Amino acid sequence: MRSRLIYASVALISIFCVCAATIGCGQVASQKQQKTSQSAASPEADAPAQSVDASKPLELPGLHNVIRVTEKLWSGSGPEAEEAFQSLKELGIRTIISVDGARPNLELARRYGMRYVHLPVGYDGIPGEQSRRIALAVHHLPGPIYLHCHHGRHRGPTAAAVAWRSLDRSCRAEQALALLKKAGTDPRYVGLYEAVRNADSLPDEVLSGPVPEFPEITPVPAFVEAMVKVDTHWHHLQACRKAGWKTPPEHPDVVPRHEALQLLETYQETLRLPELQDHPAQLRQWLEEEVQQARRLMELLEAMPTDPPAVEAAFVRLQEGCKRCHAHYRDVPDPVKPMP
Ligand code: HEC
Fold first, then answer.
1. Under a CB-based contact definition with an 8 Å cutoff, are residues 109 and 116 in contact?
2. Could you tell me the residue ranges of all domains in the chain?
3. 159-190: per-residue pLDDT in tens?
4. Using the 8-state DSSP alphabet, how is residue 210 labeled?
5. Is the CB of 8 under 6 A from ligand 1?
6. Which ligand 1 atom sits nearest the alpha carbon of residue 3?
């Protein structure tokens, strides 16, 4: 699955202008504090910086898994509702970088006086060109910067860790990997871990060289757009399940069987995408199976009287469908075609 290479190539057509380099990544904030407090008492005050502190990521209104990576850089989940932008404002954030496939909420960001930059990456690793662009965005754009994916667990912390290593020579692989651990990045995303392990600091001439243009929106392949939609309906279904297969209190507009229907329709639309012809036959077959499974869930949700164990089984089966396909086609670096 290489369609996301388009991300890198589309964004490559960037206009360049020359600007002076601004401050890069500092050290992890907590490390600095740790160092300062150590310096009076401990002879190891000048020892290399420690790994990210073991405290839990922050939960703020509208934002999850929020971690301060360096003085200039934060990582966390995508801001959805307005309260999330309020939280970002309270953190003093001036630039938001999204690395997921969803369209950033430019309107809300503007209203809160923040600039949005969209540099999407997949789950199977971060191509060198995109790593560099993300690091340069963190280097050049006004901070503090909030870098996010959807949940703030996998792609976001990885991109933040890669930027940190690219901009701070003293950041060792173990420190950056500790950030992934703190964020809860699943070790099954081997390509993400590799991206952090292989990240290298950017040479001075790149840091002080031309500044790429950083797009507000980067077009993503139609397949990725479809997956973002699948994900939205899936989240709604999860919320319905939690609410005993009723409309969840936090989403008064969500109706369980409508969500199942929309999941079914989104899978059908995905199957009709012309680009699907370039995908493996097995992936298409699995999508067809998911259409049937989504229909089954919808019918069970419509049935009277309801059959809760059957609904639960249908939901779990659909969940397995996401995992099965991702494990094969999304989450692993492609052994055949190497990343550019
Ligand atoms: C038949 C295969 C298949 C099924 C079923 C499937 N996916 Fe995906 N999904 C993919 C592939 C492949 C990608 C990576 C696409 C790319 O980046 O080019 C992906 C990407 C995603 C993404 C990342 C989008 C982004 O921001 O880049 C999300 C989120 C996602 N899927 C959620 C789900 C959920 C939730 C389900 C189940 C309800 C699901 N998918 C079912 C194949 C599948």
1. yes
2. 5-30+47-211, 222-329
3. 999 999 999 999 999 999 999 999 999 998 99
4. E
5. no
6. 18
